[in-house]
């Protein structure tokens, strides 16, 4: 895994939020999916980490965003946790996976990854978390990768084009969207391998004319 991604461990992340501004709008759900590599070098979705999150003090909640996700932040049956607890627990698992694969740090994989990364970074800063296992600005965006590999950018259409099941009624749940994004990422990486794109045909250090 470390050799395949230049020392990075891909970890798929999806968030559901109370708006589009990571500094002011609530983080309401977050999910992460770790990946594993088999003996033949193919990657697969592995462990799912997911949590519902209490809006931080003073967080903005846009009704349009809540209508879109179907989340009621104040539902008494919602099993929500505080941001600091959610991220601390998830980061422990991510750091363990980094060590297991001999990687240097994690890199966020997301569909329109900038959005998820921005909300994750804002929550990290808000809670003064010092041991962030993720690269601070690099990410792998499956919307961009799918545009190249499949001619699609929407998650549902990308999955269907790749022959992966997609349940629209389950979409916009962080756990479901993260798992489907992980399946999509693995499909594209593995397909590239099957087409001869990995390992590299050119050995490191060889100069091209």
TrEMBL record:
<feature type="site" description="Important for substrate binding and specificity">
    <location>
        <position position="137"/>
    </location>
</feature>
<keyword id="KW-0378">Hydrolase</keyword>
<keyword id="KW-0479">Metal-binding</keyword>
<feature type="active site" description="Proton donor/acceptor">
    <location>
        <position position="172"/>
    </location>
</feature>
<feature type="site" description="Important for substrate binding and specificity">
    <location>
        <position position="68"/>
    </location>
</feature>
<feature type="binding site">
    <location>
        <position position="16"/>
    </location>
    <ligand>
        <name>Mg(2+) 2</name>
    </ligand>
</feature>
<keyword id="KW-0819">tRNA processing</keyword>
<keyword id="KW-0540">Nuclease</keyword>
<dbReference type="InterPro" id="IPR036397">
    <property type="entry name" value="RNaseH_sf"/>
</dbReference>
<dbReference type="InterPro" id="IPR005987">
    <property type="entry name" value="RNase_T"/>
</dbReference>
<feature type="site" description="Important for substrate binding and specificity">
    <location>
        <position position="115"/>
    </location>
</feature>
<comment type="function">
    <text>Trims short 3' overhangs of a variety of RNA species, leaving a one or two nucleotide 3' overhang. Responsible for the end-turnover of tRNA: specifically removes the terminal AMP residue from uncharged tRNA (tRNA-C-C-A). Also appears to be involved in tRNA biosynthesis.</text>
</comment>
<feature type="binding site">
    <location>
        <position position="177"/>
    </location>
    <ligand>
        <name>Mg(2+) 2</name>
    </ligand>
</feature>
<feature type="binding site">
    <location>
        <position position="14"/>
    </location>
    <ligand>
        <name>Mg(2+) 1</name>
    </ligand>
</feature>
<dbReference type="Pfam" id="PF00929">
    <property type="entry name" value="RNase_T"/>
</dbReference>
<feature type="binding site">
    <location>
        <position position="14"/>
    </location>
    <ligand>
        <name>Mg(2+) 2</name>
    </ligand>
</feature>
<feature type="binding site">
    <location>
        <position position="172"/>
    </location>
    <ligand>
        <name>Mg(2+) 2</name>
    </ligand>
</feature>
<keyword id="KW-0269">Exonuclease</keyword>
<comment type="subunit">
    <text>Homodimer.</text>
</comment>
<feature type="domain" description="Exonuclease">
    <location>
        <begin position="9"/>
        <end position="194"/>
    </location>
</feature>
<feature type="site" description="Important for substrate binding and specificity">
    <location>
        <position position="20"/>
    </location>
</feature>
<dbReference type="InterPro" id="IPR013520">
    <property type="entry name" value="Ribonucl_H"/>
</dbReference>
<comment type="similarity">
    <text>Belongs to the RNase T family.</text>
</comment>
<protein>
    <recommendedName>
        <fullName>Ribonuclease T</fullName>
        <ecNumber>3.1.13.-</ecNumber>
    </recommendedName>
</protein>
<dbReference type="InterPro" id="IPR012337">
    <property type="entry name" value="RNaseH-like_sf"/>
</dbReference>
<keyword id="KW-0460">Magnesium</keyword>
């Amino acid at each position: 895994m470390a050799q395949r991604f230049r020392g990075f461990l891909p970890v798929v992340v999806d968030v559901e939020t109370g708006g589009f501004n990571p500094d002011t709008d609530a983080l309401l759900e977050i999910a992460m999916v770790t990946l594993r590599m088999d003996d033949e070098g193919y990657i697969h979705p592995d462990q799912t980490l997911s949590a519902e999150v209490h809006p931080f003090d003073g967080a903005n909640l846009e009704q349009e965003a809540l209508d879109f996700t179907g989340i009621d932040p104040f539902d008494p049956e919602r099993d929500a946790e505080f941001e600091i607890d959610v991220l601390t627990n998830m980061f422990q698992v991510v750091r363990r996976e980094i060590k297991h694969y001999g990687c240097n740090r994690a890199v966020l994989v997301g569909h329109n990854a900038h959005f998820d990364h921005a909300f994750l970074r804002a929550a990290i800063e808000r809670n003064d978390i010092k041991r962030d296992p993720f690269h601070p600005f690099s990410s792998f965006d499956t919307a961009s990768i799918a545009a190249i590999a499949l001619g699609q950018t929407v998650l549902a259409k990308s999955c269907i084009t790749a022959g992966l099941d997609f349940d629209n009624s389950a979409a916009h749940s962080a756990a479901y969207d993260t798992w489907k994004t992980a399946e999509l990422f693995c499909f594209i990486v593995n397909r590239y391998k099957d087409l001869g794109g990995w390992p590299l045909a050119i050995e490191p250090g060889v100069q091209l004319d």
